Amino acid sequence: MTYQQDQFKKFVDLMEQHSPQEGPNYSAIENVGTFKASTTQGRHPMVDPPAIWIVGQGKKTCYVGSRKYEYCAGNVVVMFYPMAVEYEIAEASPDKPYLVAGVVIDLGRMADVLLRIDRIEGGAPKPVSSDPSGIFSIPLNDNLLNPFIRLFETLPDPREAAFLSESIIDEIYFHLLSNERGGELRHLLQQRGEIQRISKAVQFIHQNLDQPVSVEGLATMVHMGQTSFYENFKRVMHISPLQYAKSVKLHRAQTLIKEGKKANEAGYLVGYNSPAQFSREYKRHFGFVPSQT
């Protein structure tokens, strides 16, 4: 292990303090929070934001396409893009709930930190692998743990949180980009080629949920051939462009229904003109019909 056990225990205690309810717990600092589960949960689909997650206790398995990632205590999981995933919480109990703390990644801000690093160091190091995946896992170390602790220690005082959080989050970005796997993140941030085009397609899908999606249309928009676009999208996101778009649309529809929209209206807002088709695909994705949400 590359972190101090007493510091890790301190952080788990902080997670518990700031996780008063099951599920997501949002903090006074925008894009900083925790997730808590006191019982195991079967496999279910989600769309997660780009974020840095530190697992405090318990165990969760993440399935992304054909890949599998374990969220275990002492692991750091980094999602560089919004990922369509399936989760299964394998270890959790009321006495020892599954706990994870996260900071949503602001890519523009992370790129600014990288520019500041490059002014000091020069060019980015070569990545340890050529894997363009939008998700990877690394062991926790004190360089990442300590600023997370300080970030959560500011939460009881809104004035302190507002004043100090930005510099602490920049520090987290710095240590992540300086990690042995950080070369991959730096490489992704600096590229002006195919991976950035995939990022543009992902952004378009999220910002135009009511619009129909096609591989041809996305490929044309990002100036790539259809075959090249499809293959590269799947290498980064681990599922096809149409599967990804459908997952994003259905999760947005679920959120709209929970906020009070009628199922037909929610379906229409994410591009479904046929209520029957929306209901079928919703049930196929979540395992239950919209009215049961």
List keywords for this structure.
globular; 10 strands; alpha+beta; Jelly Rolls; 11 helices; 293 residues; Arc Repressor Mutant, subunit A; 6-stranded antiparallel β-sheet
Helix-strand layout with pairing:
Blueprint: H1 5-17, E1 23-26, E2 32-37, E3 41-48, E4 51-57, E5 59-64, E6 67-72, E7 75-79, E8 83-91, E9 98-104, H2 107-121, E10 135-139, H3 142-153, H4 158-178, H5 182-190, H6 194-207, H7 215-221, H8 226-237, H9 241-258, H10 263-269, H11 275-286
Radius of gyration: 20 Å
Task: Give the uncertain stretches in residue-range form.
Answer: none
Mean pLDDT: 89
The total of beta strands comes to: 10
Dominant shape: globular
CATH superfamily of the largest domain: Jelly Rolls
Order of SSEs, N→C?
A: HEEEEEEEEEHEHHHHHHHHH
